[in-house]
Amino acid sequence: MGNISRRTMLGATGGLIAGGLLKTRADALGVEEGAARLQTAQADPTKVLGAPTSVLGQRAPAEQPQRVMGRPAVTASSRTPIEQLQGIITPADLHFERHHAGVPAIDPDGYELLIHGMVDRPMRFTLDDLKRFPAESRLCFVECSGNGGAAYNPNAAPERSPSQIDGLLSTSEWTGVLLSTLLREVGVGRGASWLLAEGGDAAVMARSVPLEKALDDAMIAYGQNGEAIRPAQGYPARLLLPGWEGNAQVKWLRRLEVSDRPSMTREETSKYTDPLADGTARQFSFVMDAKSIITFPAFPNVLPERGWWEITGLAWSGRGRITRVEVSTDGGDTWASAQLQEPVLSKCATRFRHIWNWDGGVAVLMSRAIDETGYVQPDLETQMAARGAGTSYHYNSIRPWRVEVDGGVYFAQGEGA
Amino acid sequence: MSRLAQGPAPERFARIRFVPFGLLAAATLVFYGCGPNTPDGESGAVTSGSAEWPSTFAIGHDATPAQIEALDIDFGPDGAGAPPGSGSVAEGKVVYDTKCVGCHGTTGQEGPNDRLVGREPSEGFPFGERRGIRRTIGNYWPYATTIFDYVTRAMPMTAPGSLTPDEVYAVAAYILFLNEIIPEDAIMNAETLPAVTMPARDRFVPDDRVGGPEVR
């Protein structure tokens, strides 16, 4: 409406210098009209005036990646479409979600983080306070410890995409204040060894975290890929524990209580514990083991012809840097070192690439990650032998893909190796 | 709950602990030129003075006991700071049948949400051995206090945090009774709930994964 009347007005006062008028008319496009110019690809874009500047960018019409999920739910997850992304960074609006009682709407002006317990001086920090402290930025992955559960099965369905298997993985540049900086302000009491981290969501979700990690590289993050953390990732501030399972990295962080023992919340007893074949359950299994997955070629890709293709995917370890990724194109009989794309960062997704000349026959593709501790991503059989077929969480076995003669690619758990 | 008042007064060691960190930060700032980037020979020498971290940044606000108490809701296995109140099995049945039954079923086993009741399998702890065994409070949860802690935080789903301590003690009593862990005449309160020994209490072990070549 406003655009139309403005253009009408411009037309009515058209007796101006031609060049000036043209510039004015072009600039007079409204936001919607300008955006609309990007919606239809032009046969010859060099002969049609393009879209103007805009206050907010948009994706190319042909590129509309979405999170992978079922019906919207408040206690559920949505997955990053890892096979549709390049490099290692996850766009913030495609970061995976796992909520326990929905995404809270938090007023940043009323937000406070309380730190108390075994401290010299219990304190509250507003969002502005947090941002005033010396800050750090780092790239690291966040992965749900239940990621890959569908693959922990020798008979897993072949029609599964990388995101359907391992899409509870995202990588961002996080910015915030190191937790050690805040603990230095409050003064940690002698004998303290744990913190309780508590969220401000409707589950008031809470996890106990060892003080050692808090003093190592834990961060109170408020920035994600250059902007404020998105609500689904913990706005206005979350706990970031590089390399550790996502659940412990409490979003919407409202309280940290310094203590000398864990609180044994539901999320560290009933959930997020890993029963083992020996009749025990592993507790506080925070670190994400080294893992990799080929994201291309993978289901539902169909290779249209034989010849050279680049096998690519992601590798990551919660214990440090990825030192090597090995790729097999023959079901694990032989392995070759893949090229690691810089940057290769500690506790961060690493992109790997490996060129492959497909001869048109059946091929089983695999990748295995090796981290700086010397850990080698195991195959499913080895992992099941170590933990038991019924274990939960931390599913990091090798992900095989079977290329059929028609070029179709299918998840192929149980193949080879 | 805060344990500050219980043990010996915590001694100040934070400063000792963090001196190396402060020096590291200072060194980093110097080497990476956080100060004015002045070429040699010109006035305005680069100093490291501004990069030294102060003993405190004096940012933030003191938290009063009332402000802490308003948020300090956790109830751990030692029962420290547990809220006053109590509840019986019979009272818990009333709470359960009113506010829990819709998601957890008439006997705590029917769902549709998490199954709360059940002691099967009666032998061993075979959850790691084979898939598909439903975890319940009776067969898997190691601490009774977790019921109180979790219900206080998050239940009922559509009205989280709405139950009184008496109601939470009562519903914990009822769930423990249904799981055949406490008798029907038991009363749960700040003393008795932490004293309940859960069947799976000794099944939980620390994480033994350490990286390196061994797959655990």
How does this structure look, described?
Chain A: Residues 100-264 form the Oxidoreductase molybdopterin-binding domain. Chain A: This is Oxidoreductase molybdopterin-binding domain-containing protein. The complex is a heterodimer of chains A (417) and B (216). Chain A has 417 residues and is of the alpha+beta class. Chain A is 14% helix and 29% strand. Chain A has 8 helices and 23 strands. Chain A has helices spanning 2-12, 18-27, 31-36, 127-132, 162-166, 179-186, 211-216, 380-387, and strands at residues 76-78, 97-99, 112-117, 123-126, 136-143, 169-178, 194-199, 206-210, 219-224, 227-228, 238-240, 253-259, 274-275, 281-283, 291-296, 307-316, 322-328, 336-337, 339-340, 350-358, 363-371, 401-403, 409-411. Chain A has a 5-stranded mixed sheet. In chain A, strands 5, 6, 9, 10 and 11 form a 5-stranded antiparallel sheet that branches. Chain A has a 5-stranded antiparallel sheet with strand order 18-17-21-22-23, with no helix packed on it. In chain A, a hairpin with a 7-residue loop joins strand 17 and strand 18. The longest helix of chain A has 11 residues, at 2-12. Chain A is globular. The N and C termini of chain A lie far apart (65 Å). Chain B has 216 residues and is mainly alpha-helical. Chain B folds into 2 domains: 14-60, no CATH class; 86-203, Cytochrome Bc1 Complex, Chain D, domain 2 (Orthogonal Bundle). Chain B has 7 helices and 4 strands; from the N terminus they run αβαβααααβαβ. In chain B, helix 5 packs across helix 6. Chains A and B meet through strand 3, strand 4, helix 6, strand 12 and strand 13 of A and helix 1, strand 1, helix 2, helix 5 and strand 4 of B.
